[in-house]
Write a structure and sequence with these properties.
The chain is of the alpha/beta class. It folds into two domains: about 1-190 and about 350-390, Crotonobetainyl-coa:carnitine coa-transferase, domain 1 (Rossmann fold, 3-Layer(aba) Sandwich), CATH 3.40.50; about 220-295, 2-Layer Sandwich (formyl-coa transferase, domain 3). The chain contains 17 helices and eleven strands. The strands form four sheets. It has a three-stranded mixed sheet with strand order 1-2-11, with helices on both faces. Strands 3-4-5 form a three-stranded parallel sheet, sandwiched between helices. A hairpin with a 4-residue loop joins strand 6 and strand 7 (about 225-230). The protein is elongated and about 85 Å long. Keywords: Transferase. InterPro entries: CoA-transferase_III_domain, CoA-Trfase_fam_III, CoA-Trfase_III_dom3_sf, CoA-Trfase_III_dom_1_sf. This is CoA transferase.
Length: about 400
Amino acid sequence: MGPYAAAILGDLGADVIKVEEPAGDMARGIGPRRHPGMSGLALNLNRNKRSVAIDLKAPEGREVLADLVRGADAVLTNLRPASRERLGLTYEALAAVNPGVVLCTAQAFRTGSDVENLAAYDDIVQARSGMTSLYQRAGGEQGYAPFVVADKVCGLTVVYSLLAALMHRERTGEGQWVDVPMVDTMIAFNLVEHLNGHTFEPPEGGFGWTRVLTANRRPQRTADGWVCLLPYSDRNWRDFFDHIGRPELGADPRFGTVDRRHANMAALLDVVAAAAAERTTAQWLEFCARVSIPATPVMELEDVPDDPYVREGGLVTTAIHPTEGRYRAVSTPARFSRTPGRLRRHAPRLGADTRDVLAEAGHTVARIDNLLAAGVAYAAGEPAALEAAG
């Protein structure tokens, strides 16, 4: 979530300095790559960033970090509280160096709780927040989302929380500490619709929103493929029932209002599935477009980058990295009329910017050389960095 949030901030124009340990961020070694430390995941997560490799366990390394903090608007970390304490990454320590700094901490559990230092990754957060049980409620078994949903939702939460704190700082000059615990974030995310009847005290119904927990809520098979049909309004459903030759269903008390349809979604989706198979995907899309019923063809993941809609929007573009060659870059999806996000920097090699960033922070060439020689700092292409990175 930290690298994802920082990548978005970089897209929006922030000068992001990624402080890495000498071995590099874990994501550098996950998945296909052409060179060590430059995986496909790292190419996109580290876009618009500069990489500084510093050993924060060394006292001199923590002094270097303090120099960087002096010129920073914000510090973002997803280390656990005990690690932050050991490395001097507390709000009190950072504010003593830079009173206006915003510190954003993000980890699995809320800082100050009795479980604040427990290790956790995305699957743990999904389970602890009740998300895995939603699969079971939908008629299956306990399961995980097939993407790192907690990391990405929490990364987005980090972005808007950090920007809100910076807006406050712009108006008042006051820095502050923002804590974004993953489990808390995902509980809030899950309960938007699934608190349901337990919104009331005493409860007026159970947990869970029936419409999205129905076992047969899935794309529908057509005569020649797949389609997602989603009639929603009263008029949508009347048009749909008329089109399939079942106008009497419009007067069925189970389906007369949006609330009744949601309560009887399983039966309603059975009707949709049976009707979908009688026509081709193209026929369904033509009909739905004509009467304004939401519908779309089902995209295979490997077809998404080359889809005309995606290409025309520049959502996935081809870039040329100075060392990694041609690669696909995922663009920020937000559109700004005056300050559009863009790829300003390709993902850096580990420690690629160590010398430049430390010089900007006021370090002399001799001082930087000493830090590199002592193994406190590492620079890409220099022997100590290559040895540390394996």
